[in-house]
Amino acid sequence: MPINSQLIAALRGPILLMVFGTLLAVDYAGGMRVVRTWPILIIAFGLLKLLEFAVGNQGPSDPSTGVN
Amino acid sequence: MRGTIVTPLILIAGGAALLVHNLFPEISFFSLVVQNWPYLLIAWGALRAAEILLRFNQGKPLPARGISGGEWGLIVFLTLSGSAFVFGTSMKNRLWSGEFGNRGILIFSDSYEFPINAEAACPAKARVVVDNRRGNVRLVGSDTDKIRVNGVYKIRALDRTAAEQIYQKLKLELTTQGEQVVVRSNQERAELESSVEANFEVQVPKGVSVDCEGSYGDFDVNQIAGDLEVRSANAGVRGQDIGGKVRVDLNRSDIVRLQRVKGTVDIKGARAGDVELDGIEGTVTVDGAFDSLDFRNIASLLRFTSRTTELQVEKILGRVSLSGGELEAERLSGPVRLRSKSKDVRISGFYGPIDIDLDRGDIELAPDTAKLAQIQAKTSGGEVTLFLPNDAKFDLTARTEKGEVQNDFGSPLRTEDFERGGMIAGSTGGAKVVLETRRGTLRVSRGGSWSGRDGAPPLPPLAPKAPVPPTVVER
Known about the structure:
The complex is a heterodimer of chains A (about 70) and B (about 475). Chain A is built from 3 helices and no strands. By secondary structure, chain A is mostly helical.
């Protein structure tokens, strides 16, 4: 089954949650503090949106997803 | 998302964690969660992602949002709670350690050092009182009739002038009142007590008794003929060659190590690290919660009490080691009495009666002599193994309500199997030996103490003495 924008949209939340958890775990392990690394969340969100847009353009259009 | 697997998994994980907490009370479930909660978020996200991919592969409709609004709310709550708790713990520790003063002055301050030098006549059997709130004290008995104090004050202040003013207020006090000599570092006179630390060494006549009081810092006392008493909120205590009795009363401590004490030893610790006692001639009483305990060569009764364990041993010729959920012992002279909620017990080379009763844990016993005294070993859940010398005299009854029985000793012991359990019984005309487990394997085998038998390595040696930090620092 080909990847579509709906799948990317559904995965967005879990992936962002994993990224957030990883940033916190790195902070707790004595690495970079979350107050410095939080922009990675914005980058991840942007990348996922971009991927969603790219996949959406390849297949049939889906009005419920994509960059608004 | 309806029919999600995350909620039941969270319930299972939560139930399993609480079960572990109930079965192993020594494991701090709460601190485990607090230390690792970010991984819960990662696991949560991974489970959700896996669930979505599974639905996608099965061609089922996908949710518009992988994580619902309510879940995001819960995640925010978890994050804020976890962060607040960790932040609170960190602040508490920093306050305890004195990193922050009540005005925050220490953040911008530097450390300045001033010498401590004092000397006075000291009666041969004086009671020396050392009052040092912060800092390390080393006290050594020697052939002298004087008391000498050498060391350094470390004062944190905004500049040297301010530090000098504080130092003038402190000035170590060395006073003699009859048979009592007082060494006082007067840190309470500083406006901000936590800004002052005094590290010093005290030389005293060998015959003195010592009474130490402090809040933070270690006490190291050597070669005195009298008593030693230490009261501190947070101190490492080391004592060697003490002629009298020792009494240690601590709230927190990383270590209490005593070697070669002629009198009784009494240790109380609300929440402390390691206790190491070696070569104690008097009765030993230890009461409190400790990370690990190591007793060696205790010539009189040992009595240890904690929230989960009670242990009494008449005499320790070898060693008893307790850490986490384990107790290992070699060469004990009974009577030995042990009560514990959860502990795996291994005792080798003992003689005299022994009485063990566990809520949970394995028991492995190997008496040293063929002339056994009474043995009673019970556990509600765990294996029980007894190694008997070939020519041992005993009257044995061993029973498991649910589990296997193994008679590796052979005749005259006979085995009887029940529906779910079994028993081993037999007599060679000696002392009563009773073994019981409600759930677990029961085994009676040939062999004496651990020595010469595989699978039971000797206990590791006692840790070496920690180096003593210098009391005078060259700047």
